[in-house]
C-alpha cells in the first residue's frame, strides 16, 4: 500500500466534501491518498444553462482528461453528473452509499405561492423545470446556475418565490435553509444522491482499492436508473427522472418519467421484480415509455438544443418516429387535409366492370357512402399494397395492383377488359393516368371520391430533408417554402417525378410505404 492514490475532484465546496469522504474511507482501510482539485468547464461557464453548452458530462470531462493523461488516479463525481457512457479506458470503480435522493424546494417567506396562479421558481435543471410546470403550469421557471452556495445566494438576492435543490447537496455542506419542502412527488435525476468513483480500466491496484468502499445496494439501484437513462438517450438535454429502491422484502422497484420541457406531456412507468431477477427492469421501464410515444417526447425535448433536420409532410405516429436513427431529429405535420365526399348511391349500386382506386382515402369515401354488400365492382385495379389490402378486406378481390399510377396506366392499356373505366379520384389528382388511357381510346369516367386541401406551414431553416408522400404534398410545401438545397425523400416514382422539377437531390423509397421512406432517410441522410 505504498502507492499514494491521487484523488481528482472539482474545487467547489460540495465536490471537495465528496472527495474528502472518499479520501477518509480509503485511508481508514490503510491507503495513502492526496487530493488534486481541478476546475471544470461547468464551473467556469455560468452564463448559459447546462443544456446549451452542447455536451453531456460537463462536470466530468476535465477530470477524465486528467486521468487519461496520468495526472490523477481516481476521480470523484456526483453520480448524476456522469454520462451513461464513460470514456474509453475509464470505468466505474465504486459507488458510495446513497444519501437523500429527494429534490427540495427552498422558499423565502411562506409556501402560499404554491396555491397561487403566479409564482417564480428557479432551477437550472430541465427535469425539475418540466416536473414543476407539469404540476404548476401557470408558474414561471427561471434559470439558476452556479455551485450550490452561489445558487442559494441568488435565491436570497432575487424576487423569486423559491428555488429547487438536491437535498443531498445541501445536507453535505451543512447548508440548511430556514424554509424547505421535500418534493416527494418529483422523480429525482438518475443516481441523484450517490457518489461515484471512476478509475482507469487497466489500473488493477486502484480498482481493487476502490472495490473495498463500494456499496452494493446503491450500485444495483443506480445501475438500473442509469440504464433507463441510457436507453432513453437522455442527458442534461432531456427531462428524465428515475428512482430505484430495494424493499425489506428484497423487491427491487424502478420508477421512470419522461416529460417535454414545458411539462405539458408526461409519461411514467414503474416495474418491480425480486432481487436477483431485476436486471430487465430498466429495459422494461424504458420500453414501456417508448412504446407510448416516448421517442416523440424525446424529439420535443432535444429540439431545445438540436434543431430539426428532417421534416415529414404527413403526421407520423410515435411508432414511426421510433424507427428513425437516434441522431436524426424529426418533426411532422399534415400538409394535406383530406375530407371524403358523399358519393351517390345510384352510382355505387350499379354494376361497374372496371374500377380504379389509387388510395385508401377512396376506399374510406366509398364505404361511408354505401355498405360493401351493395357494391357491384367486377374488376378492381389499384395503386399501393396498403390500398390493395384495404380493398380486399372491405370490398372484394383486386384484379391487379401496381406501385404507382403510371405503371397501372400501362398495364390497363395492355390487359384491361373492355374500353371503359370508372376512376375514383381526388379533386387534385394528376393527369397522367386518365391522359394515357384516353390516348389509347379507353373512356375514363371520373368520380371525385374525396377532396384534398393544401395545408402548408413554414418549415424552419435548420431542416435539411423533406419527406413527401404524393405530388400534392410537394405542391402544398412549395406554397410556403422553397426547395433551397434540401433533399426530397419520396414515397414513389410519381411523387419523385414531381419532386425532380424543384429539388436537386431526390431519393425514392423501394416500397411505397411511410416506413420505407423512413428507412430511406436512415440510409441516405448526411451522405450527400
UniProtKB/TrEMBL annotation:
CDD domains: HemD (cd06578), PBP2_PBGD_2 (cd13647). Its EC number is 2.5.1.61. Residues 220-290 form the Porphobilinogen deaminase C-terminal domain. It comes from the Bacteria. Keywords: Porphyrin biosynthesis, Transferase. Its cofactor is dipyrromethane. The keyword Transferase applies. Gene3D superfamilies: 3.40.50.10090, Periplasmic binding protein-like II (3.40.190.10), Porphobilinogen deaminase, C-terminal domain (3.30.160.40). The keyword Glycoprotein does not apply. Signal peptide: none annotated. It is an enzyme of class 2 (transferase). SUPFAM superfamilies: HemD-like, Periplasmic binding protein-like II, Porphobilinogen deaminase (hydroxymethylbilane synthase), C-terminal domain. Tetrapolymerization of the monopyrrole PBG into the hydroxymethylbilane pre-uroporphyrinogen in several discrete steps. Monomer. Belongs to the HMBS family. This is Hydroxymethylbilane synthase.
